[in-house]
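Q: Hi! First time doing this. I have a protein sequence and I read that you can turn it into a structure. Is that right? Here it is:
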Amino acid sequence: MRKDKLMLSVDPGFYGRMYPDLQGMDADALMHHYQRYGEAEGRVAAAFASRQGLFTTLTEDDAILEIGPFTNPVICGPRVRYFDVLDKAGLIERALEHQRPTAGAVDIDYVSPTGDLSVIRDEKFDVVISSHCIEHQADLIRHLNQVADLLTSGGNYLLIIPDKRYCFDHYLAESTLADVVQAHVDKRTVHSLASVMEHHLLTTHNDALRHWAGDHARDTDLLDDAGAVGRVLQLYQDADGAYIDVHAWHFTPRSFLTLVAQLHKAGLIALEPQHVFGTPHKSIEFCAILRKP
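A: Yes, that's right. Below is the predicted 3D structure, encoded as structure tokens:
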């Protein structure tokens, strides 16, 4: 990634080899093509830009922590440790309640019901991994700094993140620096009423193919239901300060890159953006690598 300008990561050689219509272009032309056309078309511009490719950055010697594996971890092996809000039995029970598969459930090495990574005191990791987890963090700055504390110098945080344009968050605004800093100043440990209301009243379908085709229509519009707001308020009040699981943050690759760079430049987080990749065509997610200097 060039330091003078924030850009999504592109490997011109890889990009040119991937697509027959780009062969013969030089590196500058390939970069221009991706910025002008390829990103919007969902073209894959680097080997690490997909879920499968991201994990080829790992080596067999890496000490790895996966955050939030639920019952479907993205990485397994003898040097992998797992952190979640419930132990294995609790995660299986929750998965069954939501009719999710449980065959992949693993033993959880570290548990915190509030997602507090500081419970990990005796290990450092070369790599921390999370998949569809960061958008749930009530205090994003705190989360990123806790990850940094667990990484060795030069270690990487590998993230798989939903792109709000192609999931149920389509109509929700991209999260801003002000939003993130406010949550940190508030020392937020659970989601705000605003996040709960947005999730229950303003989200849409979660079919990436429909979104890529331009179909973002809500199957039902709860705002037409006179009782919907009251039901969400009651849900929030009944929780009585307990955690309600919704997305606190909504990202695109560019907005995530900008936000993390702003937080790092302001000295609010130790991690810096190493690579943020565009969202592949027909995918719901993008990949990023944050580095601890």
